[in-house]
Design goal:
Elements: E1 14-22, E2 31-41, E3 48-56, E4 59-70, E5 75-82, E6 87-95, E7 98-102, E8 106-112, E9 118-126, E10 132-142
Antiparallel strand pairs: 1-2, 1-10, 2-3, 3-4, 4-5, 5-6, 6-7, 7-8, 8-9, 9-10
Protein name: DUF1579 family protein
């Protein structure tokens, strides 16, 4: 039996402690982020559920994401849902230790360290006139 295209995403499975520096943007002031990110396989290991329990400057924010592989387009994808009723579709790419997430309004670029127990990177948000702005410098450390 061939390995699932999702097997490369095993690197995420588990619990991660997340910290971040929220940068001032056109829409919001600077602040801080503390979160717990949990990744788990759905049965069959074709999809990963990613749950986030975060605090932006002490204010709770929760979200859930489903990650998978679309055989028709041969692309990795995810769909996120948050406690404010927002949802967004993303295209994912894991190239070696480099991890990217591309959405219509937010995107991420980062990398795992050599031991693959730390992920650091930068989230950007689309601001006025469609310009990307640095938004959150983030670090996830395996718990």
């Amino acid at each position: 039996m061939a390995a699932s295209p999702m097997s490369r995403f095993e690197i995420f499975i588990g619990t991660w402690n997340t910290t971040g520096e929220v940068l001032a943007t056109e829409a919001s002031p600077a602040g801080s982020l503390v979160a717990t990110d949990t990744y788990r396989w759905l049965p069959g290991k074709h999809f990963i559920v990613h749950e986030v329990d975060a605090r932006f400057d002490g204010k709770p924010a929760r979200s859930m994401e489903v990650m998978g592989f679309d055989a028709a387009t041969t692309a990795y994808f995810s769909r996120s849902y948050d406690d404010q009723g927002m949802t967004e579709a993303f295209v994912l790419a894991l190239d070696g230790r480099r991890w990217t997430i591309q959405g219509k309004t937010v995107r991420f670029e980062g990398a795992f360290n050599a031991r693959k127990d730390r992920l650091t990177g930068l989230w950007e948000i689309k601001g006025g006139r469609g310009r990307w702005q640095p938004w959150i410098r983030i670090e996830l450390s395996r718990a």
